[in-house]
Amino acid sequence: MKTLILSIFLFAAVLVHAQDEYVLKVHESKTLLQGENLFLTHTNFNSNGNQPGALISGNRNTRYAVHGSFEFMHGITDNFEVGFVVLTNLTNTYGYHFVGGHIRPKFSAPEGWNLPFGFSLSADLGLQNQDYFASTFGLEIRPVFDKRTDNFYISFNPALNFSFKGIDSSSKPTFIPSFKTSFRTNDIIDLGLEYYGNLNALNTFKNVVEQKHTLFLVADLHIDPDWVVNMGPGIGLNDASNKIVIKLMLGKRLNWSKKD
Questions:
Q1: Pairing mode, if any, of strands 80-91 and 170-184?
Q2: CB-based contacts of 172-176 (< 8 A; 24+ apart in sequence)
């Protein structure tokens, strides 16, 4: 069984592509337990970006676009889960469209490893519409390092993206890090910061003008143990980034077959 799980993970890890601005989530290292299920919706509204009708690098405009994603995850074992993601896009210019789909295997370090921090490794496999993505087929590898205490949480996702097909197809990996830190203010609300970056290919970091840096002020609401709520506004820190983005992640645990 271990050999089968690792084989599936490694196969997927060579056929993955990033989800760009459709899933704005700093991942945590923890995976679902065996039999657990989680359904998430991601809604991101870009209120200030490219001009309406413009094509940027062959892609359709992102100004006033609503990026909607639907994510379902299932725990295969206590340290291995598989997720499925559907990507959609809505604009006044082009209407509502399905723009891609992904499968995401994720492995987390067992407690028996006795690491001083949480660790996981995940990847996304899927196809994407060339009208909305500069890369339609590629690879993203996402290690996750995090640490949680009673009132404090920190997570770092130093992901690498490889594009094999599309306008920006290249064998050179792109560094797309994300970072989160949050503080428990009371029993219901965690307040924090989330950062999402795109620093270009590893050998072209010097092209700062083309990099993207976005910072979010977020709130995580603990209304019910089975619900996930994460939301907040974000601001682009440089000219290449979308100026204002509003995100909402809403999820529900669906433990139909959770083990005893």
A1: unpaired
A2: 172/201, 172/202, 172/203, 172/204, 173/201, 173/202, 174/198, 174/199, 174/200, 174/201, 174/202, 175/199, 175/200, 175/201, 175/202, 175/205, 176/18, 176/140
* 196 domain-assigned: no
With CA atoms as reference, report the closest residue to 215 among 234, 239, 241.
Answer: 234
Within a 13 Å sphere around the CA of 9, how many CA atoms are in the beta-carbon half? 20
Identify the three-state secondary structure at position 11. Answer: helix
pLDDT tier at 11, thresholds 50, 70, 90: very low
In whole angstroms, how far apart are CA 142 and each of 5, 48, 52, 145? Answer: 17, 28, 33, 10
User: 78 and 31 in contact (C-beta within 8 Å)?
Assistant: yes
| Rounded Cα gap, residues 123 and 112, in angstroms | 23
Check if the beta carbon of residue 147 is closer than 8 Å to that of residue 137.
Answer: no
DSSP H or E run through 10: helix 2-12
- For residue 100, being part of any structural domain is answered with yes
Number of structural domains (the chain) is: 1
Q: Name the nearest CA neighbour of 25 among 148, 129, 124.
A: 124
Residue 108 structure tokens:
């987390």
pLDDT tens profile 227-237: 999 999 999 88
Contact yes or no for 34/77 (Cβ under 8 A):
yes
Structural domain that includes position 67? 2-170+222-231+244-253
Q: What number of residues does the chain have?
A: 260
Looking at residue 170, its pLDDT comes to: 59
pLDDT digits over 35-67, tens only? 999 999 999 887 755 444 444 445 565 566 788
